[in-house]
Amino acid sequence: MSMPSILMIDDDRDFCEMVVRYLRDDGFRAGAVHNGNDGLQAIGARQYDLVVLDVMMPEMGGQDVLRQLRMTPSPNQTLPVVMLTARGEEIDRVVGLETGADDYLAKPCSLRELAARIRAVLRRARAPLDEPHSRHLAVGELTLDLVERSASYESSPLNLTGTEYAVLLCLARMAGKPVTKATLAKAALGREHHPTDRSIDMHIANLRKKLAALPASSIRINTLRGGGYWLVVDAEGQG
Q1: Coil/strand/helix, residue 156
Q2: Which residues of the chain have pLDDT under 50?
Q3: Are 107 and 39 in the same domain?
Q4: What are the pLDDT digits (tens) for 108-146?
Q5: Which of the listed residues 126, 149, 177 is the one where a domain comes to its end?
Q6: Cα separation of 104 and 100, whole Å?
Q7: Which of 86, 97, 187, 202 is deepest in the core (most CB within 10 A)?
Q8: Which residues of 108-121 are buried (b: 16+ CB within 10 A; e: fewer)?
């Protein structure tokens, strides 16, 4: 497998140089740009496997970059993104996840942890089919393609990020049964769940919005008291 190509978008040039050097030494192809506009141009000009995106940048901040990336129909609409947020700024993390970030990490951060998060997100995006006897998993009118890692409801495609797909797949495999946040975090994020981490909640919120927007959707995600969710099918839709 070729080395994953990583683009870092961050206005801190010294930090970028340190991260890019570390990632290259760790087996990635990595480069950096230092503002949001240059980041979007770079993404449009060549293919990347993942973007590391800082929230706080002048002119066009990371949230605006991510929002434009997710809202513009293109092959890069579901490009995996790891957000870098200021330590303690929970609102940045929440908004980033709402907008479609796959994961986040607070700055200053361990370069080893950043590389681990990148690898976890890439594993989810590239996960091979682990049910070779069947390409598709169906729950009611919801169908997940286990090879293409895509989902559709009847004839309507669901535009999901890699992490959203991983969460939905975990729920679909246990359709009708509660799935704890700990299980979802392990399966979809590749890490242990911590009580203060709202990542799973935000990915679930995004999935609910996308399911609700489908025509006559009968698929919904219920909340389990005590920390979890389950996927159900009913004739009344999301209601």
Answers
A1: strand
A2: 129-132, 236-239
A3: yes
A4: 889 999 999 999 888 877 665 444 457 888 888 889 988
A5: 126
A6: 11
A7: 97
A8: ebebeebbebbbbb
3, amino acid identity: M
Tell me how many domains the chain contains: 2
Domain, as residue range, for 174:
136-233
- C-alpha 9/C-alpha 54 separation (Å) is 6
The tokens describing 136, both together, are 């598709």
Shared domain check, 164 and 141? yes
- Chosen domain end from 107, 126, 145: 126
What is the rounded CA–CA span in Å between residue 119 and residue 101?
15
The neighbour count for residue 133, using CB atoms within 10 Å, is 5
Residues 172 and 104 in one domain: no
| CATH number of residue 186's parent domain | 1.10.10.10
Helices (H), the chain: 13-25, 36-45, 62-71, 90-99, 111-126, 162-173, 181-184, 199-212
Amino acid at 47: Q
CB atoms under 10 Å from CB of 49, counted, come to 19
Q: Are 202 and 167 in a shared domain?
A: yes
* Partners of 179 in beta bridges: 229
Question: Which pair of structure tokens corresponds to residue 119?
Answer: 């690898």
